[in-house]
Specification:
Residues 14-28 have a biased composition (Low complexity). It comes from Dentiscutata erythropus. The chain is mainly α. The protein has three domains: 14-101, Up-down Bundle (Monooxygenase), CATH 1.20.1280; 141-207, no CATH class; 211-262. It contains 13 helices and four strands. The strands form two sheets. Strands 1-2 form a two-stranded antiparallel sheet. A hairpin with a 4-residue loop joins strand 1 and strand 2 (129-132). It is flat.
């Protein structure tokens, strides 16, 4: 197999390549470390995005193998994993992200600003970040915005699909600084050019939000299917008297089960 880009395997010292988990995982990792890089990457082609991310965190050697940003071969492994195992994620990474970063962005429920993994986060494509509501409010502004700047910046979408009246503070400050550096007679032309870019980005955001909705619906469908299959198995259980232990109609009346069907977890592709 011909490798594109720099895919030479980097050696790690003992301490950095030694997993800190069970002996079984240590043995499995050691076996993989002995494989030639070409064979290791061939195995990786069949892994899910979650498995790829997990494997890249096992040791420095695997991280170097799977996170070599300049390698087209490695990026293609991440891309194919996304297309195969992440339904409705057909669009490629946004500008500034490679395939691995894009997958991690979709999977990891982590606020870009505070780093929290326990708070509910949302993707804001116009800023290309995940944010909890607290950090969203702290990093956006409502007032004191030049009307010309409002014309060329995307407003974040709220959870209900409506547009927020807020704008990202750093984007407002950056665009206003750019405007101030344009001589007065050219400012209208600059605004016009920026507005054209705004329309292009707005179309991209709309498409990415459409994929968000489809992915979320797919997750809910899979969750309901998984719950239903579990209930079917429970209803097949027999007690010591040879009687069915659970009745489906009674299980479905359980309040906690009803909540499971509609549970709104922090949205990520981990599912």
């Amino acid at each position: 197999m011909k490798m594109k880009g720099n895919t030479k395997r980097k050696k790690s010292n003992k301490s950095s390549s030694k997993p800190t988990t069970s002996s079984t995982q240590t043995s499995s990792s050691s076996n993989l470390l002995r494989l030639p890089l070409e064979i290791f990457l061939e195995i990786c082609k069949s892994l899910t995005p979650v498995d790829l991310l997990s494997l890249s965190l096992v040791c420095k050697t695997f991280y170097n193998d799977l996170c070599c940003g300049e390698s087209k071969t490695i990026q293609e492994i991440w891309r194919q994993s996304r297309l195969t195992f992440m339904p409705f994620r057909e669009m490629g990474p946004p500008e500034g992200m490679n395939e691995r970063e894009y997958i991690r962005f979709l999977i990891e429920n982590k606020c870009y600003f505070c780093g929290s993994k326990t708070r509910v986060t949302r993707i804001y494509w116009e800023r290309r970040v995940r944010s909890c509501i607290k950090c969203f409010k702290e990093n956006t502004v409502l007032e004191g915005i030049d009307n010309r700047i409002k014309l060329i910046l995307q407003r974040p979408f709220l959870q209900n699909g409506s547009l927020s009246n807020r704008f990202w503070r750093d984007q407002v400050e950056s665009k206003y600084a750019e405007l101030c550096n344009v001589i007065v007679k050219d400012q209208n032309e600059w605004i016009y050019d920026q507005y054209q870019l705004y329309n292009i980005l707005q179309r991209e955001i709309a498409e990415r939000r459409r994929e968000d909705v489809l992915s979320r619906e797919n997750q809910r469908s899979q969750r309901i299917q998984g719950i239903s299959e579990k209930l079917d198995l429970m209803c097949e259980e027999i007690d010591e008297n040879g009687l069915v232990k659970y009745q489906r109609y009674l299980l479905e009346r359980c309040p906690s089960l009803c909540k499971c069907y509609t549970y709104e977890r922090p949205f990520s592709e981990r599912g």
